[in-house]
Amino acid sequence: MFDRDRWQEILIAIKQNKLRSVLTAFGVFWGIFMLVTMTGAGNGLINGVTAGFRNFATNSGFIWTQSTTEPYKGFKRGRYWNFRNSDLEAIRQNIPEVELLAPKLQGWNISGGENVIRGLKTGSYTIYGEVPEYNIIDPNEMIYGRFINQKDIDDRRKVCVIGERVYEVMFEKDENPVGQYIRLSGVWFQVIGVAKPINTNISYGSDKRETIYIPLTTMQQTFNHGDAVHLICFTAKKGESVSKVVDKIEALVKERHSISPTDKEAVMKINIEEQIKQISYLFIGIGALIWIVGIGTLIAGAVGISNIMLVVVKERTKEIGVQRAIGARPWTIVSQILTESVFLTTIAGFIGLALGTLVLHLADLALTVSQASSTEEQGAFFRHPEIGLGLALSALAVLVVTGFLAGLIPAQKAVRIKPIEALRHE
Description:
Layout: H1 4-16, H2 18-52, E1 60-65, E2 83-84, H3 85-94, E3 98-108, E4 116-118, E5 121-123, E6 126-130, H4 134-137, E7 140-145, H5 150-155, E8 159-163, H6 164-170, E9 181-184, E10 187-197, E11 211-215, H7 216-222, E12 228-229, E13 231-236, H8 242-256, E14 267-271, H9 272-315, H10 317-325, H11 330-372, H12 389-415, H13 419-424
Parallel strand pairs: 6-11, 8-10
Antiparallel strand pairs: 1-13, 1-14, 2-12, 3-6, 3-13, 4-5, 4-9, 7-10, 8-11, 9-10
Helix pairs in contact: 2-9, 2-11, 3-8, 9-11, 9-12, 11-12
């Protein structure tokens, strides 16, 4: 393997046929380059999507109401209905698989115009009636103050938590808003915190950075919603299926509100657990496709190298015959051909691996600079394209095996050459 004369012969052969050697090695180079860049791009997509789900409760689900589409128990189709506070207690009592229950009331733009006022500054933002449990399911980073707590719910306090965009419009830079008052649809509320969403890929109806949260009970009372609830978010206990829980909740509320069990449009639902699984399956498929394309390109390159090595064997027929005639063992001939094949493959593959890694690094730098200067950084679906050490080592192993297999057939042909016939070869 480390015979100096053998390596000199290999290098001389490559120098004498530079164009042929470069074209031969290009297939392997391109296969590794494509494998590295595509895998890095796939990892960048995975990193971007998973970052948007960071800290979100993946064992959660959403359920909300829509107009009925079937007549039932004397009610006509097209009846609009809402969840009620009593439904929440019924769920807690009858569905023990539920861990957290977070009702939500959606105010939207209640006044139909500029619904948020502070001094001379005005804005139009979404208002939600919220409970503390929702901040566990979909957590926020508190830039100032705190989120809504149970005392706010029990006392129906006129307090609010504003999104970071609301803060930027309504307050001066670096001004502490906690304790200040803003008017929401004609009603004064005290600001108790500024929330920055951690998860950006999951939202309900509006940009969370342009949202204002007030206690659910306060919203029901102040804006005449009675005991209505627009949305119920929940988490399943450990070991319980979200699909099973959401089906139980749907059946329970349909029974309580006289909704046909076969009406599929009256209750809408989102299963976050199932969506996460589907995304993970998609990523597995993308990864498999990348490897299939990369390995296929490598095989094409290996076939090219194998063909060239067959040409090399034919050119060296007389030389091989002399070696056999003076007592060279078959393994000596085989190892010479295999060494040259593995050498060409490894060098070409290593250059492809290095260049692919460089391209990914430059892309990562460009994305980092772009996201740092953009206000939409949190919504980026592509970040940190990279490959791991395991992939790099696997690629190197594939290179060695590819080079070995590419040289195996030419090496076997070289061994079968008879010395007498080889010496006669012109």
